[in-house]
Amino acid sequence: MAQVSTGTVSRALSRPEMISEETRNRVMQAVNTLGYVANGAARTLAMRRSKTIGAVVLKFGSSNFSQLVEGLESMLTNKGYTLLLSASEADGITEFSALRAMLARGVDAIALLGFEDSPETKDILSRYRVPHAHMWSDPRHGGNFIGLDEAKNGRIAIEHLSELGHRKIGVIWGYIGGPTRFRSRMRFEGLEDAANDLGIEILPKACIYTEHGFEQGRKAINEILDRQTEVTAIVCASDYLALGAMNGLHLRNKCPGKDLSIISFNDNDFSAYVHPPLTTIHLPIREMGFKTGHYLLKCLGEEMTADTYSLDVELRVRATCRPLIDPE
């Protein structure tokens, strides 16, 4: 129908930059008219590659993980790859089963989130020798760990409060125990170390550990207020907890940033538009997905520009942290 050779059709579908726009348009018109779909199994046999990359991630309940996956998929799609996604339970068993199923389907590479220390995962990846990358991990561990220095992120929050004159603070944090919560644990350890270095006291009575969510943040701030502590600022592990805490303050006729300072992490889409706007540390989550895709494509021999896999965060100073000392 397109009046071109089989080879030209193949190039139009897999390497369109190799043929002229006029020829490519003619081929694509025939594809649309016929409803043609390439035979993936035949292509895999011919190329010895499935053009599919698997991602096994913890089951996500917030926008963070969707942004990460969107960034990963965007990078892969640009190079003609398809993303196969499994959102696993945080039990190690489901994740290992998903990983094994993806390897059985012949994926070319694997992106992982949340199970770096699983011995079963390490064993199967070493046996299959498939290129893989750990997302949202400490990049100091090596080239296939793409992410953030979480201890440094915790320090940034404390340093900002210290510069404003805060000396007694509390935290509303997620649970930090278990192998899948090491990011939260590392960030909290960085926060504690910075507080010790800068002479800031984290009051135990003003520390609440809970699940991430608006309602949990509201309940936590009410509990802290009921304990009548001397804290002047609260560090929240996420914007969800922070927004819930801000709502709790409003309901008790207190103003975030005036009666009690709030700082958090992530910089979600809503953070700049709540009242008052939330001071938070911006985490480049979507870019993390991009860089993971970049690393895996490079491992598969795709022509990629030079890049690094360590990302920096940025403090977004808004209105929920007030100075207790006059600026110099």
What would you say this structure looks like, in words?
The chain has eleven helices and eleven strands. The strands form two sheets. The protein has a six-stranded mixed beta sheet with strand order 7-6-8-9-10-11, with helices on both faces. Strands 2-1-3-4-5 form a five-stranded parallel beta sheet, with helices on both faces. The N and C termini lie far apart (76 Å). The mean pLDDT is 89.
Q: Give the percentage of residues in beta strands.
A: 15-25%
What is the chain-wise order of helices and strands?
Answer: HHHEHEHEHEEHEHEHEHEEHE
**What integer is the average pLDDT?**
89
Q: Could you say how many structural domains there are in total?
A: 3
Overall geometric form: elongated
Low-confidence stretches: none
Quickly give the CATH architecture of the largest domain: 3-Layer(aba) Sandwich
Strand order of the largest sheet: 7-6-8-9-10-11
Largest sheet: 6 strands, mixed
**CA gyration radius, whole angstroms:** 24 Å
- Separation, N- and C-terminal Cα atoms: 76 Å
SS-derived structural category: alpha/beta
CATH top level class name of the largest domain = Alpha Beta
The number of helical runs is: 11
CATH superfamily of the largest domain: Response regulator
- Share of helix, binned: 40-55%
Q: Predict the CATH topology of the largest domain.
A: Rossmann fold
Tell me how many strands there are.
Answer: 11
